Every structure is written in structure tokens, then in C-alpha cells.
Amino acid sequence: MVALAADVGTNMDTIADNYGKALKAGNAQDFEASLANMKAAALDAKNATPPKLEGKAANSPEIQDYKKGMDELVAGIDKASALAKAGKLDDAKKEAQGFKAIRDENHKKFR
Question: Which CATH superfamily does the domain covering 28-46+55-110 fall into?
């Protein structure tokens, strides 16, 4: 499991590393373990501020939009995990491939 209170960059690295592992997982257990690590890092990152948004108020539209992006990722992780738990690993991996679009959209705004 990921240690809490890492900086945004460390959490993003954890998400990226485990994303690759999830897509290459040969079984549901390994897939779900990678997703669990991604989710922990995403939840931790949600409570931090990306460098590009330093100095913004916690209730600013930019910070709220950043948190929304992290929530979208967590929702996708939960959906993919549920598919894997239901024995639908191929469908779960297809769902996980959608995480790339969430990443790309949010990196444009916050990286």
C-alpha cells in the first residue's frame, strides 16, 4: 500500500507505475492490487496541491476542478475493480484504459 501524505508528484508516479502493472496483470488479484495502490495514491493526491495551483484558495474553482479530476479517476478505478471482482478481467482492463483520457485531460490543466 502507498504511504499517505506523499507529494503530488510522488503520488502521480505511483499511479502511473501501477497503471502499467494493472494493464499487464495476468490475473484479477494482481490487477486489483495495482488498482488499490492507484486508488490510495489518488485519494492522497486529492488532498495535496499541484505545484501549478500553489497559492490558490482551497475553495477556488481551479482546486475544485483538480479534485473533481481525482474523483473521476477514483470512480473509474472502483468501476474497473468491480469488473475484475466479477471475473471480467478483460472488461476491467478496457475500463482501465479509459484512465489515460482522464490523465491527459487533467495534465493539460494542472501539470
Answer: Cytochrome c/b562 (1.20.120.10)
Exposure string of 53-83, with b = 16+ CB inside 10 Å and e = fewer, is: beeeeeeeeebeebeebbebbeebbeebbeb
Mean pLDDT of all residues in 45-74: 95
Residue 12 marked ligand-binding? yes
Give the mean model confidence (pLDDT) for residues 74-102: 97
Mean pLDDT score across all residues of the chain: 94
Local confidence band at 6 (pLDDT 50, 70, 90 cut-offs): confident
* Residue 107 is assigned to a ligand binding site: yes
Q: How far apart are CA 42 and CA 12, in angstroms?
A: 8
Give Cα 110 to chain centroid, integer Å.
14
For the chain, domain boundaries? 28-46+55-110
Q: Coil, helix or strand for 109?
A: helix
Give the chain's radius of gyration (CA, Å): 14
76 neighbors 97 (Cβ within 8 angstroms): no
